[in-house]
């Protein structure tokens, strides 16, 4: 167990819950790589932080609780329950996220979030899209493509 890395994961999620972008950024290595089912590969601290600003802009009232945080000298993990309102549809979402981390220079250099996309799409999109199409590769690709386009166009204020 590496207590510094456990504390780093905790500090990241505390900052995320407060939408404290400066504190989140301090947890990430300059060469951070992030991925999840919606953003499959985002590289570099500036781009990853832009993605978080975009993400938090479409989530109202985000609360996040983490448990099972563990880390050694090289890697770590956590389970988080995030609750928010998906602003595009006004629907409540509870996302159960399993996060994996890699560390370099006592910072997070790789951050991978996994969650059930079908379950997420049912909550975030509602009927008929979520339950009917949430499991399909076509809907997943459409959502990924839209997210990538929004990230390219997004200019944080």
How would you explain this protein's 3D organization?
- The protein has 157 residues and is α+β, with helices and mostly antiparallel strands.
- The protein has one domain: Nuclear Transport Factor 2, Chain: A.
- Helices cover 43% and strands 36% of the residues.
- The chain has 6 helices and 6 strands.
- Strands 2-1-6-5-4-3 form a 6-stranded mixed β-sheet.
- Strand 5 and strand 6 form a beta hairpin.
- Helix 1 (3-18) runs antiparallel to helix 2 (21-27).
- It is globular and about 45 Å long.
- It comes from Nonomuraea purpurea.
- Residues 11-111 form the SnoaL-like domain.
- This is Nuclear transport factor 2 family protein.
Element string (H = helix, E = strand)? HHEEHEEEEHHH
Q: Terminal Cα separation, in Å?
A: 39 Å
Beta-strand residue percentage: 35-45%
The largest β sheet comes out as: 6 strands, mixed
Question: In total, how many beta strands?
Answer: 6
Give the helix proportion (percent range): 40-55%
Let me know the average pLDDT: 89
């Amino acid at each position: 167990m590496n207590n510094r890395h456990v504390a780093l994961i905790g500090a990241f999620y505390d900052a995320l819950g407060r939408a404290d972008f400066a504190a989140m950024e301090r947890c990430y290595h300059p060469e951070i790589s992030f991925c999840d089912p919606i953003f499959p590969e985002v590289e570099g601290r500036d781009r990853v932080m832009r993605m978080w600003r975009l993400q938090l802009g479409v989530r109202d009232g985000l609360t996040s609780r983490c448990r099972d945080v563990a880390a050694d000298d090289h890697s770590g993990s956590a389970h988080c329950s995030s609750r928010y309102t998906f602003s595009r549809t006004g629907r409540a979402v509870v996302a159960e996220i399993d996060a994996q981390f890699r560390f370099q220079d006592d910072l997070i250099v790789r951050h991978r979030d996994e969650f059930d996309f079908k379950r997420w799409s049912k909550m975030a999109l509602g009927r008929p899209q979520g339950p009917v199409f949430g499991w399909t590769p076509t809907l997943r690709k459409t959502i990924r493509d839209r997210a990538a386009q929004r990230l390219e166009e997004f200019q944080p204020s």
